[in-house]
Amino acid sequence: MKTKFMFLACFFCVSLSLMAGDKQTIRIGTEAVDLIYQVAGNGRLYQSYLGRKLHHEADMAHLSLGKEAYPTHGMEDYFEPAIHVVHHDGNPSAVLKYQSHTRQSLSPDVEEVVITLQDDQYPVSVKLHYVAYRKENVIKTYTEISHQEKKAVELHKYASAMLHMNRSKYFLTEFSGDWANEVGIKSQPLEFGKKIIDTKLGTRANMFCSPFFQLSLDNQAEEEAGEVLVGSLGWTGNFRFVFEVDNQNGLRIIPGINPYASTYRLNPNEVFVTPEFYFTYSFDGMGQASRNLHDWARNHQVKDGNGGRMTLLNNWEATGFNFNEDKLVKLMDDAAGLGVDMFLLDDGWFANKYPRSSDHQGLGDWDETADKLPNGISHLTRAAKEKGIKFGLWIEPEMVNPKSELYEKHKDWVIHLPNRDEYYFRNQMVLDLSNPKVQDYVFGIVDGLMTRYPDIAFFKWDCNSPITNIYSPYLKDKQSHLYIDYVRGLYRVLERINAKYPALPMMLCSGGGGRSDYEALKYFTEFWPSDNTDPIERLFIQWGFSQVFPAKTLCAHVTGWNRKASVKFRTEVAMMGKLGFDINMAELNEKEAAYCRDAVKNYNCLKPVILDGDMHRLVSPYSGNHTSTMYVDKQQNRAVVFAFDIYPRYSENIRPVRLHGLDADKMYRVKEINLMPGSGSNLSGNGQVFSGEYLQNVGLNLFTGRQLNSRVIELTAE
Ligand code: DGJ
């Protein structure tokens, strides 16, 4: 959808809403799911239903009211509220009554419903937004809070939405871990009381936990079976999900900004817009939920979601900070020889007074280091052009090293406590993006580079520190706005970049998956899931992120981590995402180099399948010693299966793997590809033709008893 609406028809819909008995009913529906609200006799709004689509209008009359849609603090509700507002006169309560609603088609398959609620004693209004993506079965929700009181009101809680469930059991899956150990999948039943998933890291906010979850209903859902709601918050900062089971075993799900240290003073007529919460609901397990989100992300959310992605060679693992012009030009030869689309120059190219020769200095001074790059970036973009590849550049524009000219000149732009010793994370501090001057400066880094070097084709935007020493010299007496205004300031910068450079691809990186959310991905084409590129760890990390994000957003590089795994194994893990190399090509022998060139060609051929097709996770790395995932193009004519043996056990009973997502009636030729030069395939059935029915019911013997073995198998309909 992005900003251009193909089709816009807005109309008031109060008259079109259904009257079920004496209750007004508002339905938000996709192809498979209904979310239904009703206005009760007391004028308040209730969530009456969330679940499988109800096809018979007459049944609306049978729905009971359910729970209040957006409960407030201070009245009769005994559990966690969605909103807590303290009015200008100190009254801490709110009673929200239905005022009106609108319904608007944003395109033939996307509809927005906005329900306006109004406090019955104070001029405070709350607009609940719901955007239903019919085909993808995704609903996006967010809330706008505003008022016309005489003075500012205080917002203590401000949820993006609230969803109520009423089921026998709930199983929550969270994605947590640490740097280099991102998105570990952990599930637990929810019993009476609260479970909170939140972060207060500010910038690289998702270092320990990710802003998404899976909630299985009644039974723990499986890959291809069970009811599951998958939700994700679009906020590149402190987020919070509260799951609270009440005395009747009802569950409320409350997604939003983490209100930790973030009381917000809202002036009259100012609108507080919460982040967007996106959720899908699957009746066929986690796999279908992932495919819903992947389709929605590509079609409606991610920058250039349906566009191509560039393969690349990055110099970070090969050189670290230790490079010069000649070394880089030599690496560009390697990139061109390998057949990738782009060379990406990482950290270490800038600063002169304190050259960026390590991570201790230079951040903030964005001029090329003269003795490293005497001929500047333009020499590099020219060299790349001559070799027929694109040039990309690393930046970390929100940060500053205390050892930098920027810090010396503009201490007032740095988030720091005026009267305390400074604490550094990776020897650096965070710039105060709540300050419009800092926003201009950060925008100016990208704009300045693009103006001077228009051939830069890509940015890797890094962010290696959480917010420490939390105090904004700019916000003065509004310090509790900093976590929120920082993120809003970041979005202002990113919006300006998107507006001026709409076709510029950018990678979101935060020392790994420290930033990975769907609001950021409106501005970024892809993200860096982890600094950990050990292929075994990546099998788990990519499995985790794939629950919510499509392959084309997951950067996956072949590196020197875990040399016990062959180059073939490492490459095949990376081919399940957006493929890149970050390896010293001189370390590879001729066979390995030839294999890599062939793999890049195969990947280019398979891009429409891997990046734009349907992903089916077949065997989880969490379940044992093997794992497999396959991708099928939308026409079900081509598919590719990746299979990995990690640490098979002695005399293990290895069974065939049943494939998914194929057309049962089509005939597919099976071909193992990506073979090492000189070796043949020992896959049984290689070269033969099978029906989709056979492959899905009998399966293929994908796995072996060999440690760290991998296979890529292409299926082509005949
Ligand atoms: C952290 C990133 O995750 C790495 O890929 C690399 O770009 C370094 N920063 C550079 O400092």
Would you mind describing this structure in some detail?
A hairpin with a 4-residue loop joins strand 9 and strand 10. The chain is an alpha+beta fold. Among the domains are: about 1-300, Distorted Sandwich (Beta-galactosidase, Chain A, domain 5); about 615-715, Golgi alpha-mannosidase II (Immunoglobulin-like). Helices cover about 20% and strands about 30% of the residues. Strands 1, 8, 9, 10, 11, 14, 15, 17, 18, 22 and 23 form an 11-stranded antiparallel sheet that branches. It has 11 helices and 39 strands. The structure holds (2R,3S,4R,5S)-2-(hydroxymethyl)piperidine-3,4,5-triol.
- Helix-strand makeup class: alpha+beta
Percent range for β-strand residues: 25-35%
CATH domain topology of the domain at 2-301: Beta-galactosidase, Chain A, domain 5
The share of residues in helices is 10-25%
Number of strand elements: 39
Number of helices: 11
Global Rg: 26 Å
| Proper CATH architecture of the domain at 2-301 | Distorted Sandwich
Task: Give the N-terminus to C-terminus distance in angstroms.
Answer: 35 Å
The CATH first-level class of the domain at 2-301 comes to Mainly Beta
CATH superfamily of the domain at 2-301: alpha-galactosidase from lactobacil brevis
Bound small-molecule species: (2R,3S,4R,5S)-2-(hydroxymethyl)piperidine-3,4,5-triol
Shape: globular
Largest sheet: 11 strands, antiparallel
Mean pLDDT across every amino acid position = 96
Offer a few descriptive terms.
alpha+beta, Immunoglobulin-like, 718 residues, disordered N terminus, 11 helices, 19% helix, binds (2R,3S,4R,5S)-2-(hydroxymethyl)piperidine-3,4,5-triol, globular
